Amino acid sequence: MEKLASLIIILGSGLWLFSIIALEARWQWQMLSALVLTIGIFWAHFWEELRDTDEESEDSNDE
Amino acid sequence: MARERISQADEWQAWAQRYDIEGGIRTFESGLTVKVFVGALFVGLLMMPGSIYLSYVSGQSGAEAAPWVAVILFTELARRSFTTARRQELYMLLGLTGAAVGSGMQYRNFIWYAYFVNTPQAASYEIADKIPAWIVPAGDSVGVLTRSLLHPDWFLPIAIYLAGKLLGTLRFVSGQYILFRLTADLERLPYPMAPISAQGATALAETTGKEETWRWQVFSIGSMAGLIWGFLYIGVPSLTGVMMSQPIEILKIPWIDFTQSIEGFAPTGVFAFRTDFGQMLIGFVMPFPIIMTEFLTAMASQFILNPQILYRYDILYQWTPGLDVRGAGLFNGLDFWISYGMGKSFSLALVGMAASIPMLFKLRKSQKRAGERGSFATPPNRGDFPIWLMGAMWLIGMAGFVWLIHWMVPNFPLSFLLGYAFLYTPINSYITARTFGVLGRDLFEIPYLHEITFILSRYEEIDIWFAPLPDEDYGRGTQSWRVLELTGTTFTSNLAGTLLIMPILLVSGIVVLHFIWQIAPIPSAQYPFAQMMWPINATNECLWKTSLRDGNSQMLQAIRGDYVAAGFTSSLAIYGMLWVFKLPSMWYYGIIGGIGADPGGMMTRLLGAVIGRFYMIKRFGMRRWYMFNPVLAAGFACGVGLIGMGTVAIALVSRAVIVKPF
User: Fold this and answer.
1) What distance in Å separates residue B162's CA from the closest CA in chain A?
2) pTM recorded for the entire structure
């Protein structure tokens, strides 16, 4: 899950750089990159927060 | 070695725990006594005229110092009377004096719009005759022309203001309280920044006891530093300004401009060294990673991005050699940075949502599993209110407010008002309360909300720009309830104090402002800051208020979609890449704050951060240094404030003296 979030974010950042360098910084392409980045960031945070919860609960069960 | 991933909440909580030196007390006492009430009223009303006057003369009211002056007077009186001052009393005194000294400024919009309605800008943008009567009487009315707030012409604006104030008090007290109970009692959120606010009152309460602790020593050091700095930076120019035509400035206020010096190798770059060394105190307190990344990004913006990329590719095209920091800043803003900044604001909102929405799920889930869930049961003697009563108060306050706005702008769609009042406000407030409870700061803020609303509503009348909208946020205020809890002040005493002092302040504020307006027109030569800034502000207000009237306004022309998209997407990319490489999220806030900003304005803050990090922590140890910090900052504010009030008093006396030519 973490790797998937990282992959989406890297893809979005790469697409944004490409749109700036090769696509005349058109806002449509930039916003497409923003959409990809948004999905990646939300994915990352959901994974991060809910992962912690699972681990904590496992720890408390161990105790 | 692989870097460990730390969530944003954990990162900020770890930083905030440095300030939390005591868990707070759990015995509650009333802070409201007759001496506190009279003391707050006396100092507040004594300083209020000076505060209003100073805000028109210099642009800074100095009001933040008044509560500390009251507290010091109070503690000294207590000490000389061989009694003690409790921290509950001092915290209450801080709040009530702050309210009293700021009471005159609550009516400042009346003076502003009395000026605005007769400006050539308002006339040329064709809005002077469209300003609603519930904001200001007509430009040719007696109340405006004779500068009298007590004239019957002002009845409607004042009545609307008072109705709004009453309804607002109902909504904010109840809304904040309900959210506090939800987040602090039920969800057990830590509110990590609340102990800082509680420190000042605690420090001074100890001074009236038999034993003095480190707090009083640190507070005294801060006060002396503030007194010396305040005298050099504010006192000398103000006092010499009274006696001479040209005041003497030991350090140039507010900055020393190097923009023209760097234009040879960094055209379009700006660099103005801000001379307010009081900013060092902020550097001591703020997280070091934020200050460092902010400064480095600002340097890169002004010395690489602006001259080498944006200027070279003709994106910054209005700049010409010889411009100072204000000129270069204005043109750079219109060409690129205003648009980029808008995109940046949207990214901040989105990142805030991404960080806070998963938090809504996380804590609830973990507490449920661990069996740690809090309850609505309240600690004994805290002075709590029934939830149903607070809920009813909020409903009445909000329904009344919606009706009032609907009466003010009857043609504006009611559905937008109802949506804001009963859907947006509760959700927005709850999310903010949670982020304050976890991080001690607001993450969730939708930029340009009013402008978006006006576009979506297709409402084209100008009056909506003057009306309030029910898009409120009570989350921020929940922290003050936590501070009350930490200082052991009963909630009922705080509410009683606020309600008792309010009618007195509502009347005295308008009377004092009336007399200050009678002295001379505002703006005029008597009030140099207002004279310099108000015409520019009037132009800006006209630009904004007419920005959606047609598709050809100057403000709309400055906003370019590709630059807004660049600001939005690049900020998201920065945040995402920091996450991928497991770097601190604080870097993001530093980078976003620094990009496009003037590094000269950050130098003193950086100096404070470096001294704190590389000397003070080594000298005193991390824990002690972070214990000292808030107390030192409070002492410094007190010292500067005392100097400010002293110089205002002298300036007021000198203005009252009539010099005769014989």
Assistant:
1) 44
2) 0.70
